[in-house]
Amino acid sequence: MNPAQEELAQEARLQALARIHVVLCRPSHPGNIGATARAMKTMGLKELKLVAPRRFPHPDADALAAGASDILQRAQVHATVEEALAECAMAVGLTRRERELAQPPQEARQAAPELLALAHSQPVALVFGNETFGLSNAELAHCQRLVTLPADPAYPSLNLAAAVQVMAYELRLTALGAAALPATPARVSLREMAYFYRRLEETLIAIQFLDPAHPKRLMPRLRRLFDRCGLEKEELAILLGILKQAHRKDKGKVD
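^ thats the sequence. predicted structure below, dont judge the formating
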């Protein structure tokens, strides 16, 4: 790749940062929302989503945003994390703890190339939890990847906006680098995956493979399987077609 081509490639990687959404779940302190907006803007991230914030809009958010008030003005407020993630192709949960039946957590620098490659064409979400409690298991269940920041285990607590800053920095550092990003096929949106999981559960109940009274860990295990591979639209259409046929109750009648 000659210098002109590399410059164009780098510009495309930097533009991909604008398709990385920062999602704050149940933030308690409006000042952290403002500081998050500032951290995002310094690294070229633009899309902020808030899930059930305790106080927003708020003067403290405006004050801590400094010159990033435009990000606060565009910020979207959602009632649930599922709603906030609906249009994204991947959600990445920032957490210090491992979750059973989840993908092994990666460090931020390891995860950045895949996230940036996918963000070339589709929105990707970075999901952060409440300042005190972090992400709940229910919120983490909506994330296809887990990322951890390599803090000192003797004191791993990191301010919310600082965690956003570190992750945004790693993404920008990757965008500015010369290394080729991994090839990443287009994935279906998380809204489409949520619909698929509902249909899958309904079908498994209908064919008596899943007992709703004693579900055990079947659906979480199946979610982990599909989260690991990442479905393309044609693959999702095939699977939905199979479910439709499997859900047939009698000849000529399909749910």
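The mean pLDDT is 92.
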